[in-house]
Write a structure and sequence with these properties.
This protein is an alpha/beta fold. The protein is 55% helix and 13% strand. The chain has a six-stranded mixed β-sheet. The termini are far apart. The relative contact order is 0.18.
Length: 141
């Protein structure tokens, strides 16, 4: 089963009222993933999204509103890490020279069998063990 993995930062922009033009771009991507059924995320993304929406964005959401968003996104295909994935991510973070948390996202995307990871935190176009990072906010052309 394929799909497209969405990193936390893209989802934050989609639901952050203060995100301006990035909000529109993120919402378009998220809507496409909803309509196509291609959306894939991980437990880590759900956790980070809740914390960010309730504590870190300028216009914080109520815990109830953030919970509702997380509950909706939990209907996407959700990848749950195993303890072995933590060890793989530790090694991968050193090999790829990325943070442990970014490595966990990349490992989850690989575990899901997706070809595309939507993120602004990693280099657009870079390939990590078959997963291509795409930045939805990068101007095409």
């Amino acid at each position: 089963m394929s799909g497209e993995f969405c990193d936390t930062n893209v989802l934050v922009y989609a639901y952050d009222q203060t995100a301006s033009e990035k909000r529109d771009q993120a919402r378009q991507l998220v809507e496409r993933l909803w309509e196509s059924g291609a959306g894939v995320i991980s437990v880590q993304v759900l956790q980070e999204l809740y914390v960010t929406l309730t504590r870190k964005v300028p216009a914080r959401l109520s815990p109830e509103n953030a919970r509702s968003i997380v509950a909706d996104l939990a209907t996407w295909r959700v990848i749950e890490p195993a303890h072995e994935d933590v060890l793989v991510a530790i090694d991968a973070s050193r090999r790829w020279k990325v943070s442990f948390w970014d490595a966990m996202i990349l490992i989850a995307a690989g575990k899901a069998g997706v070809l595309t990871l939507w993120s602004e935190d990693l280099n657009d176009g870079q390939i990590y063990d078959g997963v291509v990072v795409r930045n939805p906010f990068r101007a095409s052309g």
